[in-house]
Amino acid sequence: SQTIHQWPATLVQPVGSPLSLECTVEGTSNPNLYWYRQAAGRGLQLLFYSVGIGQISSEVPQNLSASRPQDRQFILSSKKLLLSDSGFYLCAWATGTGYTEAFFGQGTRLTVV
Amino acid sequence: TQLLEQSPQFLSIQEGENLTVYCNSSSVFSSLQWYRQEPGEGPVLLVTVVTGGEVKKLKRLTFQFGDARKDSSLHITAAQPGDTGLYLCAENPNDYKLSFGAGTTVTVRA
Fold first, then answer.
1. Residue A1 and residue A102 in contact, taking contact as beta carbons nearer than 8 Å
2. Which residues from B are below 8 Å from A44, CB to CB?
3. Distance from CA of A77 to the nearest CA of B (A)
4. Residue A104, Cβ neighbours under 10 Å: how many?
5. Residue B44 confidence (pLDDT)
6. Residue B102 has pLDDT above 60, yes or no
7. Using CB atoms, which residue from B45, B97, B100 is nearest to A49?
8. Degrees, nearest 5: CA angle A72-A96-B3
9. Chain A partners of B99 at a C-beta cutoff of 8 Å?
């Protein structure tokens, strides 16, 4: 069966510090991978998605970047965090065939102080 | 860009009551998914609807897709506290993207 791992679960970082969130998927190959950000109690904002190694599509101009160095690894990064980067970050994968049904990780609660 | 509108934003009911939440768009959906999210966790897929007029049931949850595929509803019968959560609809504007509505926060009081 497929599983998705996302870490860390919580993170408190000072303004101006770098960020690296990692997500890995097991049990499937060539998945579509996604990073979303969610404000408290609200919907999901799509930040990046990837349909293959090295292929990244950015949805929203921002202080963040994403990379996919391996087929089942997706990384969200920032060189210098802003207060506005605080939020709940979710990684997800989908099969990429037919209509897209996504399976999510447990999320990372990022607080920039 | 197709916008998904969900209503109401918040819904609080007593255990045993029924509730309906809605998802609407100005454009036709290719397919639509419903997810439920509990606090501090990722959303979990409940159902995917594809055909106009389609009705799917999942225990006490009934999902309906409008005939014109521009709207969908989720009805919960005899709600229980375990139904509490954020209900999100999502659609595929293309083969890769998955876009979400703002969600409806449902609270079922015991």
1. no
2. 43, 88, 100
3. 20
4. 22
5. 95
6. yes
7. B97
8. 115
9. 46
pLDDT for position B17: 98
* 8 Å CB contact between B35 and B87: yes
**Do the bridges between strand B99-100 and strand B44-49 make them parallel or antiparallel, or are there none, so unpaired?**
unpaired
Q: Do B96 and A32 make contact, defined as CB atoms within 8 angstroms?
A: yes
Tokens of A85: 């980067």
Flag residues of chain A having pLDDT under 70. 61, 96-99
Q: Smallest Cα–Cα separation from A26: which of A58, A66, A67, A74?
A: A74
CB contact under 8 A, A46 and B97: yes
- Higher per-residue confidence, B77 vs A2: B77
pLDDT tens-digit map of B35-51: 999 988 999 999 999 89
Nearest CA in chain B to A109: B40
B58 or A40, which is more confident: B58
SS3 B70: coil
Measured between CA atoms, how close is A41 to chain B, in angstroms?
A: 7
Binary contact (B105, A106; C-beta < 8 A): no
* Nearest Cα residue to A2 out of A34, A30, A27: A27
